[in-house]
Specification:
Strand order of the largest sheet: 1-3-2-4-5
Number of helices: 7
Radius of gyration: 17 Å
Structural class: alpha+beta
Order of helices and strands: HEEHEHHHHHEE
Strand content: 5-15%
Helix content: 25-40%
């Protein structure tokens, strides 16, 4: 397992945590709990166990850290063997999430970090955004056909147009198998996964978006006026 270089971690973490973004937020709270640690292995496949994680720099990180579970069913992009893992809880109709995802895209495309940073996307549609849950299920349905990130990008660019008719139009633009896509939405195939992501976020105190964990350290943008 690679050892994370301190400069890479600090630059990545501070660049994100010090962002002037606001957020669609309530208050962070909840009981401190730890989930079983899991993560996609590098090219070899399987899940990384905690005894494979290098803890050599743990003493240099202050504050709470959490073992946020993610598996190969989650949507992941970036480095195959990351030094920094960012687990993001996001809402497709949150304007602050849209800005934040642009920052993440720039980060993982930057040659300085491309081989070091992994992003894990977790669904967290807020009740205040009436079509956000539809966006979450549509993105996962597109992911079933290998087009999650393409749908992800379209949804963030069209945050005010996310009804069933809208997402079907986007699916057609992506040339998805429409019969399969519609059947997946009709069956609410991914509703359970959305609910699981939200339950996991709440377990770690997530109350608004965007919320994210950088190598287990919880971060969030500055509080905005909107509440969950």
């Amino acid at each position: 397992m690679k050892r994370i270089s301190l400069p890479v971690f600090l630059v990545s973490a501070l660049a994100l945590a010090a962002s002037p973004l606001t957020g669609c937020t309530g208050n962070r709270g909840g009981k401190k709990e730890e989930a079983a640690a899991a993560g996609p292995a590098a090219a070899g496949g399987g899940l990384v166990t905690m005894d494979q994680v290098d803890d050599s720099l743990t003493s240099k990180i202050t504050g709470e850290r959490f073992r946020v579970t993610y598996t190969d069913k989650d949507q992941i992009k970036g480095a195959a063997d990351p030094l920094v893992t960012i687990v993001e809880f996001s809402d497709f109709q949150c304007p602050f999430c849209s800005k934040f995802t642009d920052m993440l895209n720039e980060l993982i495309k930057d040659p300085a970090y491309a081989n070091d940073v992994r992003v894990v996307f977790k669904q967290y549609p807020l009740p205040m955004h009436k079509d956000a849950a539809m966006g979450s299920e549509a993105a996962l349905a597109a992911g079933e056909q290998g087009k999650f990130w393409e749908m992800h990008d379209i949804l963030f660019k069209n945050q005010k147009a996310m009804t069933r008719a809208d997402v079907e139009k986007y699916a057609e633009e992506l040339k998805l198998d429409m019969a399969k896509f519609k059947a997946t939405l009709d069956a609410k195939t991914y509703q359970a996964q959305v609910n699981e992501d939200m339950a996991l976020g709440k377990k770690f105190g997530v109350r608004g978006t965007p919320s994210f964990f950088i190598n287990g350290k919880w971060q969030r943008a500055r509080r905005g006026r909107s509440t969950a």
